[in-house]
Every structure is written in C-alpha cells, then in structure tokens.
Amino acid sequence: MINELKPLFIGDLEVKIPIIQGGMGVAISTASLVSAVANCGGAGTIASVGLGYGTEENDKDFVKASRRGLQNEIRRTKELTQGVIGTNILVAVSNYEDLARVVAQEKADFLVSGAGLPLKLPEYVEGSSIKIIPIVSSGRAAAIILKTWKKRYNRFPDAVVVEGPLAGGHLGFKFEELINPPENMLEILVNDVLKIIREYEKEFNVFIPVVAAGGIFDGKDAARFFKLGVNAVQMATRFVATHECSVPDEFKKLYLEAKKEDIVIIKSPVGMPGRSIKTSLIERVVEGKREEFRCNYHCLKTCNPSTAPYCIAKALFNAVSGKIDDAVVFSGSNVYRINKIVSVKELMDEIVEETIAALDKS
C-alpha cells in the first residue's frame, strides 16, 4: 500500500511533493501563490512576463522595468518560503536573455522555459547553480534541445516538462491541432519524450526527470502519468482558484462560472495559438475587429504592433486588473470543472490523496 508519493529530485533539489505549479502571467503566479505551493512541499513558479507592466518606468524603459519587477518578485517570494521556487520565461519575449540572467543572479532554484526552443539558455545562466528546464510539446523538440545542449555546452536539461494540447496559455501546437485534440495526446507525447530521455540517460549515465503538463486536473490524472514513468506533474489552472492566488475576484469568478463551450482557442500576437476563456475582447477579435493600441517597447519578438489585432500584454494585464471585458484570460481545458475556491493546502492535500488512492488501485 502506498502511503506517500515519491519526491521529485532535480539535481540536488528535492521537491517533497512531486507537483509543480505552472507559471502563469501576467502577474497571476506571484509571491503569495508561489510561496504557498512551496510551503506545502511542491515547487512554485513565478511567471516572469509582464511584471513591470502598468508602471511609469515600463513605458520609458521596458527592459529595466521588467528586470526590476522580476527581481522584486523573486525576493518577495524568498522572504515567504524556504521551499523550492523558480520562474518561467517565454523564449518569445524580446528581453529573454536579460530575464534569464536576472533569474540566475537572484538565485531562484530553477528556470522553466517554453514558447520556443531555449537553445541558448545554458549560456545565459553559466556559472550559476540554477536548474534549467525546457518545455517541449514533441519528442522532436526534446531531441533537438538534448542534442544542441550536449554539443554546445556539454550539459543536459535538469528536467524536461512535456506539455500537451489541453494546457492553458500559449501552446506549442498548430491552431488546427488544438480544435479537436485526441484525449490521449499527452500520453503519446510523454511516451515519445520518455523514450528519447531514457536513451540519453543510458548513454551518458545521467538522470533527467520528466514532468507531464497540460490538462491534468486531479489525482486520477496525475496517477495516470506517474504510471507511465514521469517523475512529477505540473498544474496551473487549478491554482488560480485558491485563496492565495492574488488575481481579483472578477478573474476567479470567470473561472468558477466558465462552461465547456466558453473555452476557446485564439490566435495570439505571440505567433502561437492559446487557450482562453471567452470574453468580450475575444468575441470582438473573432469578429475581425482590431483593438487600437500604442506600443512603446515591442515586448515580443514575433509581434508586429502595426498589424496585431490587439496587444496581448495589455489584454493579460487587464485580466489581473479586473477589466475582464477587455482581457484575455488564459485557462486549461478543464477550467469548467472548477466549482469552488480553496486554500493551496486543501488543493495539494486533495490531489495527493487522490493520486495515492488511484495508484493503490493499479
């Protein structure tokens, strides 16, 4: 009989409960939520994107404001916990290298990176002890990163997150693939990546933990992936519906009231599709209307402000400012199953108990 879950080891880091809270921007997974997850034995992740948004400094010097915002958030989080905390950074942001160097300098425990292939990430954190973890959505992407990092830097990822098509936010799939994704797509992807990882582990005598992410809602889901051989699961959407998540009540209300038909796939100015809850802004954009905006800083490599239908940074910031009608509110595919706000501890305890019960039945 199983009494507890095996901890997640990322190099010399020990995450006592193998649950990683996924990074959610803009300003959704910040110090209060991240520290609460870490204090419960999981790994908390600060979303680095847009932490300077809404300040006067941001309009004058976007890079400096972003850097300062991230530094402050890491420091605030560290004051609240001795647990394992990290950040995530989108490869697609124009100040990617600067943010990565900040995370290393501030000595976060780990850095997760997706929305593109983080092929140069090892050089940005060189000389630090930070653990670096790419997010992949295919076995091919995992193979490219493993091969490139080994050849260029003689190192491997400290872990790999495999994110499937049911996740929220920006996704590494084609728009058409997300309209009707197979229910077992994440299982297929996890098996593909595990096969590649195992080959590298055997050849080079290393250990690379694999984390499953995207659409994992409860302990039954988590147990399914632990049985496949993953070392941890990453969850994001469910952590929004906690007391410790600092988003306004209007944001959480949208999560609580969302129906399955309210979840849509959008085309983001990032250049990638994303999953969100339908809002008035989303409806206007789908109808072909363009939201006028002024861009002072070009925060995304792939965004062309003159043709983008809306500013994704402004839309995400509106969400955490309570301006839901003019917001993009990202969520995973299972958000419609959320029906109450709980504490992080209650949520973590529930998931762990469900996972152990499901594993016991196998």
Walk me through the structure.
It is built from 14 helices and 14 strands. It has 2 domains: about 10-250 and about 340-360, TIM Barrel, CATH 3.20.20; about 250-330, no CATH class. By secondary structure, it is α/β, with parallel strands linked by helices. An 8-stranded parallel β-sheet has the order 3-11-10-8-7-6-5-4. β10, α9 (about 220-230) and β11 (about 230-235) form a beta-alpha-beta unit. The chain is about 40% helix and about 15% strand.
- The CATH topology annotation of the largest domain reads as TIM Barrel
The percent range for strand residues is 15-25%
CATH architecture of the largest domain: Alpha-Beta Barrel
What is the residue-mean pLDDT, rounded to a whole number?
Answer: 92
The gross shape turns out to be globular
Which stretches are poorly predicted, pLDDT < 50 over at least 5 residues? none
User: Reading side by side through the largest sheet, how are the strands ordered?
Assistant: 3-11-10-8-7-6-5-4
Count of helical segments? 14
Number of domains: 2
Straight-line N-to-C gap: 11 Å
Global Rg: 19 Å
Let me know the number of strands: 14
Oligomer: single chain
Q: What is the assigned CATH homologous superfamily of the largest domain?
A: Aldolase class I
**What is the ordering of alpha helices and beta strands?**
EEEHEHHEHEHEHEEHHEHEHHEEHHEH
Structure classification: alpha/beta
Please outline the major beta sheet.
Answer: 8 strands, parallel
| CATH class descriptor name of the largest domain | Alpha Beta
**Helix fraction?**
25-40%
